[in-house]
């Protein structure tokens, strides 16, 4: 059996997240592989892949903060809000000032309501929005609350009638960088779309831990499940009796360690479970023993 843990992949462009999972199944020698947080084919960077028991972590890791490097092109709109789509409108953007761009970005920073792109994986009446959109249907997606913790401009470059804005975005799970590009362009009256996207961090896992697919084919580097949990969540060490209780799916007393998942480790240092505190008790989210 393959080791349980995480593979931090530097996803190449043109690959889907599913392509990466399929490749990692062969590399790790197991079918029990999944990923946390999809990256579009155009995007590159950190894709967290879980192997064996670590697949139970993925739903919790997908909810963590993420960081992206992006390039937004002002002056051109597309039907996918990124460079993979068809151009739907153009408008001269060369007269847009840096001050206007910074003002538009400030309005998209903090807690905002964001309408996801038409071409997204969100389900509408049981079907993925992108399937409906590509079939020519008009998809009405509701705005959702997201948090853009930081939206920093690295550079502004004007080329003829378009303006490229290089930026770094730190945001909550569920934030679409394509939608930020679309909304910035709309606010400036010239339209906009995303031309480059690279994810540099998912929770505590960043590019310093990532390996390319080629590197992983040469050497499959797996972050052990205990180290992965310690990096991402608060840690709780328990007694032998508490370990027995949690190993059978029982509850532990709360210690006031926070509102999110907590890693529980036994007397031997091995990972036992993820728990979440609810009032006086800590309830198991996932048990890794047995």
UniProtKB/TrEMBL annotation:
<feature type="domain" description="Pseudouridine synthase II N-terminal">
    <location>
        <begin position="25"/>
        <end position="177"/>
    </location>
</feature>
<dbReference type="InterPro" id="IPR020103">
    <property type="entry name" value="PsdUridine_synth_cat_dom_sf"/>
</dbReference>
<dbReference type="GO" id="GO:0003723">
    <property type="term" value="F:RNA binding"/>
</dbReference>
<feature type="domain" description="tRNA pseudouridylate synthase B C-terminal">
    <location>
        <begin position="178"/>
        <end position="221"/>
    </location>
</feature>
<dbReference type="Pfam" id="PF01509">
    <property type="entry name" value="TruB_N"/>
</dbReference>
<keyword id="KW-0819">tRNA processing</keyword>
<feature type="active site" description="Nucleophile">
    <location>
        <position position="40"/>
    </location>
</feature>
<keyword id="KW-0413">Isomerase</keyword>
<comment type="function">
    <text>Responsible for synthesis of pseudouridine from uracil-55 in the psi GC loop of transfer RNAs.</text>
</comment>
<dbReference type="InterPro" id="IPR036974">
    <property type="entry name" value="PUA_sf"/>
</dbReference>
<feature type="domain" description="tRNA pseudouridine synthase II TruB subfamily 2 C-terminal">
    <location>
        <begin position="233"/>
        <end position="288"/>
    </location>
</feature>
<dbReference type="InterPro" id="IPR032819">
    <property type="entry name" value="TruB_C"/>
</dbReference>
<dbReference type="GO" id="GO:1990481">
    <property type="term" value="P:mRNA pseudouridine synthesis"/>
</dbReference>
<dbReference type="GO" id="GO:0031119">
    <property type="term" value="P:tRNA pseudouridine synthesis"/>
</dbReference>
<dbReference type="Pfam" id="PF09142">
    <property type="entry name" value="TruB_C"/>
</dbReference>
<dbReference type="GO" id="GO:0160148">
    <property type="term" value="F:tRNA pseudouridine(55) synthase activity"/>
</dbReference>
<protein>
    <recommendedName>
        <fullName>tRNA pseudouridine synthase B</fullName>
        <ecNumber>5.4.99.25</ecNumber>
    </recommendedName>
</protein>
<dbReference type="InterPro" id="IPR014780">
    <property type="entry name" value="tRNA_psdUridine_synth_TruB"/>
</dbReference>
<dbReference type="Pfam" id="PF16198">
    <property type="entry name" value="TruB_C_2"/>
</dbReference>
<dbReference type="InterPro" id="IPR002501">
    <property type="entry name" value="PsdUridine_synth_N"/>
</dbReference>
<comment type="similarity">
    <text>Belongs to the pseudouridine synthase TruB family. Type 1 subfamily.</text>
</comment>
<dbReference type="InterPro" id="IPR015225">
    <property type="entry name" value="tRNA_psdUridine_synth_fam2_C"/>
</dbReference>
<dbReference type="InterPro" id="IPR015947">
    <property type="entry name" value="PUA-like_sf"/>
</dbReference>
């Amino acid at each position: 059996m393959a080791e349980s843990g995480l593979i931090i992949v530097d996803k190449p462009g043109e690959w889907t997240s599913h392509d990466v999972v399929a490749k990692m199944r062969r590399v790790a020698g197991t079918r029990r592989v999944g990923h946390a947080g999809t990256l579009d084919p155009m995007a590159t960077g950190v894709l967290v892949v879980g192997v064996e028991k670590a697949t139970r972590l993925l739903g919790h890791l997908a909810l963590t903060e993420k960081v992206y490097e992006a390039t937004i092109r002002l002056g051109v709109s597309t039907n996918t809000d990124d460079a993979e789509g068809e151009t739907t409108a153009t408008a001269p953007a060369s007269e847009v000032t840096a001050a206007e761009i910074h003002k538009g970005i400030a309005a998209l920073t903090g807690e905002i309501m964001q309408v996801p792109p038409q071409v997204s994986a969100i389900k509408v009446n049981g079907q993925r929005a992108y399937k409906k959109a590509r079939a020519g249907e008009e998809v009405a997606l509701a705005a959702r609350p997201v948090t853009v913790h930081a939206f920093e401009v690295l550079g502004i470059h004007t080329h003829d009638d378009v303006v490229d804005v290089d930026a770094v975005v730190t945001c909550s799970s569920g934030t679409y960088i394509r939608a930020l590009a679309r909304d910035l362009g709309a606010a400036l009256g010239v339209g906009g779309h995303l031309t480059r996207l690279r994810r540099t961090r998912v929770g505590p896992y960043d590019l310093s831990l990532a390996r390319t697919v080629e590197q992983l084919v040469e050497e499959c580097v797996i972050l052990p499940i205990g180290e992965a949990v310690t990096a991402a969540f608060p840690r709780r060490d328990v007694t032998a009796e508490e370990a027995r209780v949690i190993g059978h799916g029982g509850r532990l007393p709360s210690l006031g360690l926070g509102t999110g998942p907590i890693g529980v480790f036994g007397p031997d240092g091995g990972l036992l479970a993820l728990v979440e505190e609810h009032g006086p008790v800590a309830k198991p989210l996932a048990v890794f023993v047995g």
